[in-house]
Design goal:
By secondary structure, this protein is α+β, with helices and mostly antiparallel strands. It contains 29 helices and nine strands. Helix 2 runs parallel beside helix 7, helix 5 crosses helix 27 and helix 21 packs across helix 28.
Length: about 725
C-alpha cells in the first residue's frame, strides 16, 4: 500500500508546479504591468495569463488519445520537460512576446499534468484510499502556491523586484519532477493490461500493493477491458463451498450454483434469491429517495443503494472489506473441494521451478488452483489468496478487488466454455445469517449449521473462459490473447455514444463547466489585485509594507489556511464521500460569496470592509479546496471505462480549459465593468446552480473499484432510458 501512496505523491508534483506557476504569475503580474506599461491594456494583461491556458487547451485535445496509445508515464515525463523549458524562457523573456511564448510552453506542461495525473493516480490506487490519494494534487498544488507566494513576497521587498527571476525559478522544481518521472514512476497497470503487457502489469501491481499475490486484481483489470454489455442485477445467499461436514452427503438444490473466486482457493455455493437486495429493488422499482423526487437521476439512487448498505467501517483504511466475511470465509478449519487432479498437478508444476523459485512470475499458474488450506500453513506464503483474514488487531481485511467488493465467476449455461463475471457486494446491516446453510443446501442436519451472507451482484459476460480460470491453458497466454482487441473492436470515438459513457460524460463535463464558472481560477490568478482593491493594504499599513507587498502577503496567508482544509478533505474523501463533500461545502461557498457581495455593497469603513472581504476570500478558497477543487477531477478519472478513459478525460479537460480561458480572460474586464460586487454575485448564482446539479445528477463513488463504477453507469443508463 505504501508503494501506491509514494507513487501518487510523486505524480502530484506536476500539480505542485501548476500551483507554483499560478501564484507566481499572480504576484509577478503586478511588476510585469509596470515594465511593459500594461495598466491601460487589460486585454494584453489578460492574454499573458490566458496564454498558459491556451497552451493547456491545445495539448489537452491530443493528450487523452495519445495517452491511450503510448501510455500515461511518457506524457508525464513530457510534462516535466515542458515545465523546465518554460521556466528557462521566462527567465530570459526580453519582451512581452517572448513571455507569451514561454507561457504557451508552460501551458503545455500544465495541460498534460492536470489531465493525466488524476487518471494515473486513479489507475494505480487501491479503491479504499483512491479519494485520499487523488486529493494529493490539490494538496501539492496549494503547497506550490504557498511556496511561490512566500518567494514572491520576499522579492517584492526589494527596491526593484525582478519578475523574470520569480517566473524562472520554476525550472528548479521541474528538474526534480523530471528525475522522479523517469526513474521512479511506473506505467499504469491498467494501461499495461490493455496493451497485453501482462508480465509488466503484474510486477507493477506487486510493487504498488506490496504483496506477491495480485491475481484477483489482475483478473479485475482484464474484466475492465469490456464493460457495459448485458448487465443484470442478481441477489444471492452465499456460503463457503466446504461449509458442510466432510462426511455428510450433500443434498444438491437444483437452484444452487457454484461461484469461483478470482484468486487461488476460492469457491462458494450460492442460491439466487429475489426481492432482498436494496440494489435489486432500485433497479426494479427505484428507491425511496427516487420516489420522493422524480427529478433525481436514477443513477444517483442506484449508487446510493450500495453505499447506504455499507458496514459502518467500510470506508476505513484498516477495514478493506465487509466485516462479516471474516468468520464465513476464514482459512481455519476449512477445506476446498476435490479438484481435478490433473489440473492440480499442472498448477503445482507452474508455481515453482526446480530451484524452488517462482517460475515466470507465477503467470502460468491458473487463476483458481484448489489446494488444501486446512491448517492455514500456506497463509503467509500466499498472503492475500483467501477472501478475508483476521489481522493482529482482530480486524478483518481482504484482498478481493477492494472497497467491499469481490470478483467471482460462474459458468454460463447458455454457451459452452463461457463464463459470467459477478461483482459481489455484501448487504450491510444484516450481519451473518447463521443456520441458513440448511435452506441453502437442502440439508436438515444441525451439523450443517454455518454462516451465510446476503450479497447483491452485478452479473455480465466475462472476457475470460472456463479454460482460463481452471488452468487448462497458461493464464499468461490467455490474458495476452484477450487483452489485445481485434482491429474490428479497436476502441474508437463511436464508443463514446454508449449509454453508460454518455451518462458519465454528462456528469464529468457538467461538473467541469460549473466548477470553472464558479470563478475559482479567476480568483486565484487575481487574488493580489482583488485584495488590493478591497483595501487589505490598510490592515498591514503599520508594518510599512507597500500595497503590492501587502496584497501578496495576504495571498500567502490565505493559501496557508487552505492547507488544513485540504487535510480535512483528504480525511473525509473516502469516509463521507465525494457527493457528501460537494453538497456540504457548496452552501458554505455560497454564503462566503454573499459575504463578499455585502462587503462590497455596504460602506462599513475601509478597515471593516477590508476585513469582511478578506474573510470572505479565505472562506471561499478553503471551502473550494475541500470540495469543488479536487472532486470534479477525481470523479472524471473514476467514471469512464478503461478502453475510452483517455478520450473521455480529454473531453472533460478540454471543457475545463475552455471555461478557464473564458473566466480568466474576462475577469479584468468584469472587474472594470461590474466591480467586486457584480463578479462575486455571478459566482454566487453559479454555486447555487452547482448544488442543484450535484444533488440531482452526481452519484457517490467512494470505495468502489473503477470497473464496478463503470458497470454501474451502464446499468443506470439503461434504467434511465427504459
Amino acid at each position: 500500500m505504501s508503494g501506491a501512496v509514494l507513487v501518487a505523491l510523486a505524480a502530484a508534483i506536476g500539480n505542485l508546479l501548476q500551483g507554483w506557476d499560478n501564484a507566481t504569475i499572480a504576484g509577478s503580474l503586478l511588476y510585469i504591468k509596470k515594465e511593459f506599461h500594461l495598466e491601460t491594456q487589460p486585454t494584453m494583461e489578460g492574454l499573458i495569463v490566458a496564454m498558459s491556458l491556451i497552451g493547456a487547451t491545445i495539448i489537452t485535445t491530443f493528450s487523452g488519445p495519445v495517452s491511450d496509445t503510448v501510455g500515461r508515464r511518457p506524457l508525464l515525463i513530457a510534462s516535466s520537460v515542458l515545465y523546465f523549458l518554460s521556466g528557462l524562457f521566462m527567465l530570459w523573456a526580453p519582451n512581452v512576446y517572448t513571455l507569451l511564448l514561454a507561457r504557451l510552453l508552460d501551458g503545455f506542461g500544465v495541460g498534460l499534468a492536470v489531465t493525466l495525473v488524476p487518471v494515473y493516480i486513479s489507475e494505480t490506487a487501491p479503491p479504499e484510499i483512491r479519494g485520499l490519494l487523488n486529493t494529493f494534487p490539490q494538496l501539492t498544488g496549494s503547497g506550490g502556491m504557498l511556496f511561490s507566494y512566500c518567494m514572491v513576497f520576499g522579492m517584492s521587498l526589494n527596491e526593484s523586484p525582478n519578475w523574470r527571476v520569480m517566473l524562472g525559478v520554476l525550472s528548479i522544481p521541474s528538474l526534480v519532477y523530471i528525475l522522479l518521472a523517469i526513474f521512479y514512476l511506473p506505467e499504469s497497470p491498467r494501461w499495461l493490461v490493455s496493451k497485453g503487457k501482462i508480465k509488466e502489469a503484474k510486477k507493477v501491481l506487486q510493487q504498488l500493493r506490496s504483496r506477491e499475490d495480485v491475481s484477483g486484481e489482475m483478473a479485475l483489470l482484464m474484466e475492465g477491458l469490456d464493460v457495459g454489455g448485458d448487465v443484470s442485477v442478481e441477489e444471492y445467499i452465499i456460503a463457503p463451498d466446504n461449509d458442510l461436514d466432510d462426511n455428510q452427503e450433500q443434498v444438491v438444490d437444483k437452484d444452487q450454483i457454484k461461484l469461483y473466486g478470482a484468486e487461488e482457493g476460492q469457491s462458494w455455493v450460492a442460491k439466487p434469491v429475489t426481492g432482498q437486495s436494496a440494489l435489486g429493488l432500485v433497479t426494479r422499482r427505484g428507491s425511496m429517495a427516487a420516489s420522493q423526487s422524480s427529478f433525481i437521476d436514477p443513477m444517483v439512487t442506484l449508487f446510493d443503494s450500495v453505499h447506504e448498505k455499507l458496514p459502518e467501517n467500510s470506508g476505513s483504511m484498516k477495514s478493506m472489506l465487509f466485516s462479516n466475511f471474516g468468520s464465513m470465509f476464514g482459512v481455519a478449519e476449512n477445506k476446498t473441494e476435490n479438484w481435478d487432479e490433473e489440473n492440480q498437478r499442472e498448477g503445482d508444476r507452474n508455481v515453482s521451478d526446480d530451484s524452488g523459485n517462482e517460475s515466470d512470475d507465477n503467470l502460468r499458474s491458473p487463476l483458481l488452483s484448489h489446494e488444501d488450506t486446512n491448517a492455514g500453513k500456506d497463509m503467509e506464503a500466499r498472503q492475500g489468496s483467501t477472501l478475508s483474514q483476521v489481522n493482529e488487531d482482530n480486524e478483518v481485511s481482504s484482498v478481493g478487488i477492494g472497497g467491499g467488493w469481490q470478483l467471482a465467476y460462474k459458468k454460463d449455461e447458455r454457451k459452452e466454455g463461457a463464463l459470467r463475471r459477478i461483482y459481489l457486494h455484501q448487504e450491510g446491516g444484516g450481519g451473518s445469517r447463521r443456520g441458513s446453510m440448511v435452506s441453502l443446501t437442502g440439508g436438515d442436519n444441525p451439523a450443517a449449521d454455518g454462516e451465510c451472507v446476503h450479497a447483491a451482484a452485478l452479473v455480465s459476460k466475462s472476457v475470460l473462459r472456463t479454460s482460463d480460470i481452471m488452468g487448462q491453458i497458461p493464464i499468461e497466454e490467455a490474458m495476452v490473447k484477450k487483452s489485445k482487441p481485434t482491429p474490428a473492436k479497436e476502441p474508437g470515438w463511436k464508443e463514446l455514444c454508449e449509454p453508460g459513457v454518455k451518462h458519465a460524460l454528462i456528469v464529468g463535463v457538467g461538473l467541469q463547466i460549473l466548477q470553472q464558472f464558479s470563478g475559482i481560477n479567476g480568483v486565484l490568478y487575481y487574488t493580489p489585485q482583488i485584495l488590493q482593491r478591497a483595501g487589505v493594504s490598510l490592515l498591514l499599513a503599520h508594518l510599512g509594507l507597500s500595497p503590492d507587498s501587502a496584497s501578496i502577503l495576504i495571498s500567502a496567508a490565505t493559501t496557508l489556511l487552505m492547507l488544513p482544509a485540504i487535510g480535512v478533505a483528504m480525511k473525509l474523501m473516502d469516509l463521507a464521500g465525494r457527493r457528501w463533500l460537494l453538497l456540504t461545502t457548496l452552501p458554505v461557498l455560497f454564503l462566503s460569496l454573499v459575504t463578499l457581495v455585502l462587503g462590497s455593497s455596504i460602506d462599513m469603513g475601509q478597515v471593516v470592509n477590508a476585513v469582511v472581504s478578506t474573510t470572505g476570500v479565505v472562506f471561499y478558497l478553503c471551502c473550494f479546496v475541500m470540495g469543488y477543487g479536487p472532486i470534479p477531477n477525481i470523479l472524471c478519472a473514476e467514471i469512464f471505462p478503461t478502453r475510452v478513459r483517455g478520450k473521455c478525460i480529454a473531453i472533460c479537460a478540454l471543457t475545463f480549459w475552455i471555461c478557464d480561458i473564458i473566466v480568466t480572460y474576462s475577469l479584468p474586464l468584469m472587474l472594470s465593468y461590474f466591480g467586486l460586487r457584480g463578479v462575486f454575485g455571478i459566482y454566487m448564482v453559479v454555486c447555487a446552480v452547482s448544488w442543484v446539479f450535484v444533488f440531482l445528477k452526481v452519484p457517490e463513488t467512494k470505495g468502489m473499484p473503477l470497473e464496478v463504477i463503470t458497470e454501474f453507469f451502464a446499468v443506470g443508463a439503461k434504467k434511465t432510458s427504459d
